[in-house]
Amino acid sequence: MELVLDRNKIKNLLPSSFMSQSLLRELHMEENRLRDLLHFECLVNLERLYLGMNRVQDVCELDRLEGLSRLKELSLLSNPVSRRIHHRTTVIGRLPQLASLDGVEITSDERAKVEAAVWNEQHQGQYTESSHPLPGILHTPQGSLNVSHVPIAADRTHQGHKHFMLAAMPSMDEQGQTQSQQRTRPSRDRRGRK
Questions:
Q1: Integer Cα distance of 69 and 46 in angstroms
Q2: 107 pLDDT above the threshold of 90
Q3: Confidence of residue 135 (pLDDT cuts 50, 70, 90)
Q4: What are the two backbone dihedrals, phi and then psi, of residue 41, each rounded to the nearest 5 degrees?
Q5: Could you give the CA distance from residue 169 to residue 111 in angstroms, rounded to a whole number?
Q6: SS (H, E, C) the chain
Q7: pLDDT at 191 over 50
Q8: Is the pLDDT of residue 155 over 50?
Q9: Rg, the chain, Cα only
Q10: Closest-CA residue to 26 (of 37, 34, 18)
Q11: Beta-carbon contacts of residue 80 (< 8 Å; ≥ 6 apart)
Q12: Among 22-26, 53-57, 99-103, 122-126, the least confident range
């Protein structure tokens, strides 16, 4: 079921605005005057919500949509909130069930980066080297840690917990050669001679 309320100069919604619309799956409310996202919570089956060209400014308004667990597509284009730095990151972090934001698909890489950023924000400054799950690796506010393509193997069980070891892999250049292979390669002059 779809409802289109575009260009109706709607400023706000009443608690009863959508009370009888629990089966609604798609709602268009673009080009209105909405400043807040109150009273959408009864739309439990809503999958797509189009709110472009309204007046939503406060990023906290997005929290009001958290209860819409089936919401997969959201558009906030041309709202003041969508012009903020890190708009996509903020929305994806607050509404992780989304598959598309502002007409652009949310990729698995983008989602992983957002989840890592949210985790870092939540745990910033909580670890010391001795309490960190990976001793010797610290999170610092100055930078982030990006670990990829690292095999993890179970080492042993101690007090009911499995311990894992990270196997370091040499970094490779664009031609697939490790740094040690680059150093052992004989140098050549411009014409290819040794």
A1: 8
A2: yes
A3: very low
A4: -60, -25
A5: 25
A6: CEEECCCCCCCCCCCCCCCCCCCCCEEECCCCCCCCCCCCCCCCCCCEEECCCCCCCCHHHHHHHCCCCCCCEEECCCCHHHHCCCHHHHHHHHCCCCCEECCEECCHHHHHHHHHHHHHHHHCCCCCCCCCCCCCCCCECCECCCCCCCCEEEEEEECCEEEEEECCCCCECCCCCEHHHHHHCCCCCCCCCC
A7: yes
A8: yes
A9: 25
A10: 18
A11: 55, 56, 57
A12: 122-126
Amino acid 124: pLDDT: 73
Residue in 36, 37, 47, 43 with CA at minimum distance from that of residue 98: 47
Cβ proximity of 75 and 50 under 8 Å: yes
Q: Which amino acid is at 122?
A: Q
Give, in order, the Cα–Cα distances in Å from 144 to each of 2, 133, 176: 43, 16, 25
Strands 152-158 and 104-105, sheet pairing = unpaired
Tokens of 47: 């999958």
Q: Dump pLDDT digits (tens) for 9-39.
A: 999 999 999 999 999 999 999 999 999 999 9
Report yes or no on whether pTM surpasses 0.70: no
Contacts of 53 (CB under 8 A, 6+ apart): 30, 31, 32, 77, 78, 79
